[in-house]
Design a protein that fits this description.
- The complex is a heterodimer of chains A (190) and B (443).
- Helix content of chain A is 73%, strand content 0%.
- In chain A, helix 8 crosses helix 9.
- Chain A is globular.
- The N terminus of chain A is likely disordered.
- By secondary structure, chain B is an alpha+beta fold.
- Chain B has three domains: 60 residues; 205 residues, Lipoprotein localisation LolA/LolB/LppX (outer membrane lipoprotein receptor (LolB), chain A), CATH 2.50.20.10; 121 residues, no CATH class.
- In chain B, strands 7-8-9-10-11-1-2-3-4-5-6-12 form a twelve-stranded mixed β-sheet, sandwiched between helices. In chain B, strands 13-14-15-16 form a four-stranded antiparallel β-sheet, with no helix packed on it.
- In chain B, helix 5 packs antiparallel against helix 9, helix 5 runs parallel beside helix 10 and helix 8 crosses helix 10.
- Chain B is globular.
- About 12% of the residues of chain B have low confidence.
- The chains are: A mainly alpha (190), B alpha+beta (443).
- At the A-B interface, helix 1, helix 2, helix 3, helix 7 and helix 9 of A face helix 1, helix 3, helix 4 and strand 7 of B.
Chain lengths: 190, 443
């Protein structure tokens, strides 16, 4: 089942992966471009701040490039990349510090919520808390600019499954966001 | 429709994935079901929040001031690490063996000038757009663009698959430009003073180039062109292409045809801002502009014409003005002799020039000529190709040199009709040029 969007005229990940392996390293740029926002959203959610996220994203991407030959299925470049990013994030993560960071960032984010460019850390960290398969779909859809049809094609699943998983992801995100709010309220009261 | 069924489909509804009958029955159910109504509101809120955050992040990574930062950092780190690995492999000092080849290790600092010279061709080459009297017009004026303080976009030479991308940030009369196949080179163009500052981030060297006369005008006209095609989304000669999803966004399209160009614009139906512009100019030249960003805050230092701290200024003598047919013939010679190992290329034109540029630098480097001589070769190549660029906007030309050996006097490789001339100029494989009447042109 490879339902593809009419608009999907861009080369697939597989094409760029193969170009890189064939000795065209410059083409890696397109994969970076395609996924950097998704990768940053995911890492910002995990690590708590933008600088750390960028640092980790860079490391993950460079690691991915040099390990490309190990990628078994070029079609699943993104989920593979997410796996690498998660490992990098883990390595970068020092728990207590991060926890503190998150609180600080959260309070900052709230103060600055009127400005357009402020990132939605609460949302990003909720996304980071989703199970892998759901997280991947949310990242692709909203941070990678893919349509549901695109995602169905890329992940080789029926469109119906994508929308079902997306529904489930929405439900989980709402729960996670709710939980965050409660923790915050609790902390304020304490 | 009951609530249970409705709730199952709400995300698909919010995502606008449902066909008409399903959509309608949900809409009807929503009318008299407050519980589902509140659910759909919540979903919409979350949806909007996701879209908003996604866009904000995309702007910060691909757009705005920090644009290309992560991307360029990654690419530069890859080059550095690859070099370390290659060195380790060459000296047998162990370390992981290189698994991928890298095509730009030749960008050594000693060759900065050469590379800068080469990069300049591409810098000006896209300035070569002839507007044919501005006959391309489209519906809908977009005022904010005309008055945009800053404008950033990617320009892909040739088709999407060419992989040849320029990224431009335009701030008033200044342009900051980077190119995908010369990752360390940045150019800052000052249109007011017809000057260009070339920077090589790897060699930490800088060069100034004068782009007075024709060249500066043309570079300027390129910016004008961009603004013109966007602003002229107005009266007549425009065909609507309807709605489609372009680069992940809903877009409305227009196509306009001029004497010598065809431009398609896809714009956001809500804001009227362009999402993607596809243009065909003359016979061979096409490009795509996308990832537009208007009025993003741009740090002044990004378009400063001063040599950045830590960079060494190199002296250079680069004159790219007034290209002649003779220059063009010389560039064909260089192309066949140096790049093509004795054979004329498959095609000529902006896309091919941009693609072959790194190769020319590489070949010239391998020839081990003096830096001065090397720069001269690159500049001759650039100058001649500018002649062709000008032709592109003025009239018909034909290239038939694919596979022809340099020196083959029996084969015509290129012919064109000069402005106001009754006869054609025909260039042969031995690089002689003859005047030929139209009826005697090669078939």
């Amino acid at each position: 089942m490879a339902e593809t969007d009419k608009s999907a005229t861009k080369p697939a990940d597989k094409y760029y992966v193969e170009r890189c392996l064939d000795g065209h390293p410059d083409d890696f740029r397109y994969l970076v471009r395609r996924y950097q926002a998704a990768l940053l959203a995911n890492l910002a959610g995990k690590l708590g701040d933008r600088d750390r996220a960028e640092e980790a994203a860079q490391e993950a991407l460079v690691r991915a490039y040099f390990n490309m030959a190990k990628l078994k299925k070029p079609d699943s470049f993104f989920s593979w990349l997410l796996g690498i990013a998660d490992r990098v994030a883990k390595e970068h993560e020092r728990k207590e510090q991060i926890q503190r960071q998150r609180e600080i960032v959260r309070s900052f984010a709230e103060e600055a919520s009127g400005t357009e460019l402020s990132q939605d850390y609460a949302l990003e960290s909720a996304i980071a808390g989703l199970p892998d398969a759901y997280r991947q779909i949310v990242l692709l859809r909203y941070y990678g600019g893919h349509s549901c049809n695109d995602i169905a094609g890329q992940l080789d699943m029926p469109l119906g499954t994508v929308t079902k998983m997306l529904s489930r992801a929405y439900a989980m995100l709402r729960e996670l966001l709710q939980q965050q709010k409660q923790t915050q309220v609790y902390e304020v009261e304490k | 429709m009951n609530c249970e069924k409705c709730k199952e489909l709400l995300v698909a509804y919010v995502e606008e994935l449902l066909e008409e009958p399903g959509k309608q029955s949900i809409a009807e159910h929503l009318k008299d079901c407050p519980s589902c109504q509140s659910q759909v509101r919540e979903l919409r809120d979350l949806h909007d929040r996701l879209v908003k955050n996604g866009k904000a992040l995309a702007r910060q990574t691909v757009g705005g001031q920090a644009r290309g930062d992560l991307e360029n950092n990654v690419m530069n780190q890859i080059v550095r690490e690859q070099n370390v690995r290659l060195k380790a492999a060459a000296t047998g000092t162990g370390g992981p063996r290189p698994t991928l080849h890298i095509g730009r290790t030749f960008m050594k600092s000693a060759m900065t000038k050469l590379a800068a010279a080469a990069a300049i061709i591409v810098a000006v080459t896209v300035g070569m757009l002839q507007l044919g009297g501005g006959t391309v017009t489209f519906a809908q004026v977009i005022e904010p663009i005309l008055n945009a303080r800053t404008m950033a976009f990617d320009l892909i030479i040739g088709g999407e698959e060419s992989g040849l991308t320029m990224h431009d940030i335009v701030v008033g009369p200044r342009i900051r430009r980077t190119m995908s196949n010369m990752p360390n080179m940045t150019q800052i163009i000052d249109l007011d003073n017809a000057k260009l500052l070339g920077l090589d981030a790897q060699g930490k060297t800088a060069v100034y180039v004068d782009i007075k006369g024709d060249l500066g005008d043309r570079t300027r006209s390129y910016i004008k062109f961009v603004r013109q095609i966007i602003s002229q989304l107005q009266e007549g000669q425009v065909q609507e292409l309807g709605e489609r999803v372009i680069d992940g966004q809903k877009a409305v399209g227009f196509i306009g045809k001029g004497q010598n160009e065809e431009v398609t614009i896809w714009a956001d139906p809500r804001t009227g801002l362009p999402i993607r512009i596809e243009a065909k100019i003359g016979q061979e030249f096409s490009f795509i502009m996308k990832n537009f960003e208007f009025n993003a805050a741009v740090d002044e230092s990004l378009v400063s014409m001063d040599v950045p701290e830590g960079f060494t200024l190199q002296k250079t003598n680069i004159d790219l003005g007034n290209a002649s047919e003779q220059d063009f013939v010389e560039s064909l010679r260089i192309w066949a002799e140096i790049i093509g190992d004795g054979t004329f290329p498959e095609a000529i034109g902006t896309e091919s020039v941009m693609r072959e540029m790194p190769k020319l630098v590489q070949k010239v480097t391998a020839m081990q000529v003096s830096e001065e001589k090397g720069t001269q070769i690159c500049m001759s190549f650039a100058k001649g190709m500018l002649f062709h660029q000008i032709l592109e906007g003025q009239g018909r030309w034909t290239y038939a040199g694919e596979g022809v050996k340099l020196g083959d006097a029996s084969k015509a490789i290129f012919w064109y009709q000069p402005k106001d001339s009754a006869t054609y100029r025909v260039i042969y494989g031995d690089l002689t040029v003859k005047d030929v009447t139209p009826e005697n042109l090669p078939k």
